[in-house]
Amino acid sequence: MGIGQEFAMELARVGRRWRTGLDARVKHLGLTQARWIALLHLRRAGAMSQRNLAEQIGVEGPTLVRLLDALEQRGLIERVDSDDDRRVKNIHLAESAKPLIEEITRISDAFREELLEGVPANDLAAAHRVLGLIGDRLERS
Question: Under DSSP, is residue 95 helix (H, G, I), strand (E, B) or coil?
Fold first, then answer.
């Protein structure tokens, strides 16, 4: 097995374990992994269309609709008609989502610090550059 194949397998393993570990730590908040990931994407973007959110979190449209229905029922998001295209719904975080997102962020930050403790900064910077390059190539494909 070549280094590229080993890297790809390790990347998949780490990503899966990272999400699973964080999911276990936020489980008490009553959110599935897909829901808290969607909330974090919305926090970063401010607002986005349903289509863009689906692309960002890697789910199909019907799956996203069910996910958004659940978040809307909890009062965490709002669907707003687009000014530019009446077929498009933009998703906004509701004010009531902010304390929940702050808690998710606090938990996520602590988890990340725990996992990265003792990793030299220059190693993290190199890993970040490599992952950024790979991510950019994936975005273009």
Answer: helix
Mean pLDDT of the chain: 92
Three-class SS state of 110: helix
Q: Compute the C-alpha angle 68/63/50, nearest 5°.
A: 50
Compute CA distances 26 → 12, 31, 97, whole Å.
21, 7, 15
**Which burial class, exposed, middle or buried, applies to 87 when counting CB atoms under 10 A from its CB (0-12, 13-18, 19+)?**
exposed
Assessment of whether the complete model's pTM goes beyond 0.90: no
pLDDT tens-digit profile of 40-65? 999 998 889 888 999 888 888 888 99
Query: What one-character DSSP code corresponds to residue 84?
Result: S
Dihedral sign from CA coordinates of 92, 98, 104, 106? positive
Q: What is the CA radius of gyration of the chain?
A: 17
Rounded CA-CA distance 91/49 in Å is: 6
Question: 89-93 and 77-81 as β-strands: parallel, antiparallel, unpaired?
Answer: antiparallel
Q: Are 83 and 50 in contact (CB under 8 A)?
A: no
